Structure formats: C-alpha cells, structure tokens
Amino acid sequence: MHIDPEVRPVAQNPRRVPYGLRDKVAAEIDSLQKQGIIEPVQGPTPWVSPLVIVPKPSGAVRLCVDMRRANEAIIRERHPIPTVDEVLQDLNQSTVFSKIDLRLGFHQLELEEESRSITTFATHLGLFRYT
To answer: How do residues 3-44 score in pLDDT, each as one tens digit?
Structure first.
C-alpha cells in the first residue's frame, strides 16, 4: 500500500457501542481474531479509525470501520475499467462460465506488515488492526 507521507496521521476517538450490542461486538471481534483477519495492536500507532456497528436483520452485527480519514492518505493506482461492450467482445465465442461468491472478499487479502497500521480501529475492547 502506498501512503502519502505528506498526509498527517489521524487518531480518532472510538464511537460508543450500545451496551445491548457489546456482547455481540465482542463475539464478532473474537471470531475475526480466531480467523486471523484482525489482531490486537501492540504499542503506539499513528492511525486510529472508529468502529461502526451495523445491526443485521438476523440480530447479528456487522463490524465496519470508518476509514474516510485514512483513505485520504492512500495513493491509488489507477486502472481503466472496461466498458460493457469491451467485456461482451472479450466473452464472444466463450463456452464455459463460472461464478464466485465474493462474500467477505476483502478478508481474503493479506496485508503487508508495513501497511497494517493504517487499518487500526478502536473498540470498547481496545485497538485492533486488519492482517
């Protein structure tokens, strides 16, 4: 990940987690840790983003991180997106198709060690970061 060194890191305060959701949030954090998706932060970190809790219709919770401030520091690579006509042309004469479930797709990517600190987020249980 390319981080713009001219953008000053921001450590934001955590958002309050309603008491009624704390057990569900703790269970989700524990699950993500066991899967190796997140890890506790050891020592100081320049970037901290707040956790956002989104209740699901099933009663479970989805953990989201408001990384708008961190996104300001990311230097993006620009890739052209093909048009529908270009994609259809590439698929012309194709005979085999497949589909893939991209649920939790971002959790399948491993971050380099030096890129992990910008993903740090604050919870009522402490600081964590994506791996």
So the answer is: 888 999 999 999 999 999 999 999 999 999 999 999 999 889
Enumerate residues 6+ apart whose C-beta is below 8 A from 92.
none
SS3 39: strand
The reported pTM is 0.81
* H helix or E strand, kind and range, residue 86: helix 84-91
CA-to-CA distance for 129 and 131, rounded, in angstroms?
A: 7
* Whole-angstrom distance, CA of residue 60 vs CA of residue 49: 22
Structure token pair of residue 69: 């401030």
Place of tokens 């057990």: 23
12: closest CA among 65, 45, 50? 50
